[in-house]
């Protein structure tokens, strides 16, 4: 492929690092693979002309990544969860132990570029990297998973303002059903997964630990542009919301992803 000058930064398919503005790069005219000029020899070959898969945006709301038919769980989320459940439920500190930051970035970019046909994660040696990809994807959304008109506030109200547990659960279920469909289905899918993680004696990640990890990732803030003080005040509330969500019965969550499928959403 001839060398070209990059105008818009894009990730290199060989090393995963970004090809920056003005730098020389090579792009295959048949399969559109882009690499640094220095990484040209590392490209697998020969390439095969193919129709380009629908690539996902680098950022977007969850619905931008969801399939057209229910359950509306993005393939990236389903694949990461399946990989973690296949070989990660004996790992201590699942989702708490960080994966290598560089590998997390590289694999997230690969999955985003692949769109609806993500590459297999079996090549990722460290399952904590897969966990990191999932968390980084959820953190990178334009809107948090628990979003929509005042949903974070309503969820916090359901967990703090209603003393009766049964009434609290009823209010919580009502708020969840009012989430955007893709957010609701993906939340249900994740809750079933995290319940499995919490039940693994090897992971040593109970509901409290998981809520600390996923509270700020899944639940929005009380205002659009929170100050550092507001973020600090929101954090324990966000954790409490996730802990309460994980206390809901699994059958409630299964209704959104299908009782037969549970966490086996087809990729």
TrEMBL record:
GO terms for molecular function: GTPase activator activity; metal ion binding. GO terms for biological process: mitotic cytokinesis; mitotic spindle midzone assembly; Rho protein signal transduction. Pfam families: RhoGAP. The keyword Zinc applies. CDD domains: C1_MgcRacGAP. GO terms for cellular component: centralspindlin complex; cleavage furrow; midbody; nucleus; spindle midzone. The keyword Membrane does not apply. Keywords: Metal-binding, Zinc. Transmembrane segments: none annotated. Residues 60-253 form the Rho-GAP domain. Residues 1-47 form the Phorbol-ester/DAG-type domain. InterPro entries: C1-like_sf, PKC_DAG/PE, Rho_GTPase_activation_prot, RhoGAP_dom. SUPFAM superfamilies: Cysteine-rich domain, GTPase activation domain, GAP. This is RGAP1 protein. It comes from Nothocercus julius. The gene is Racgap1_0.
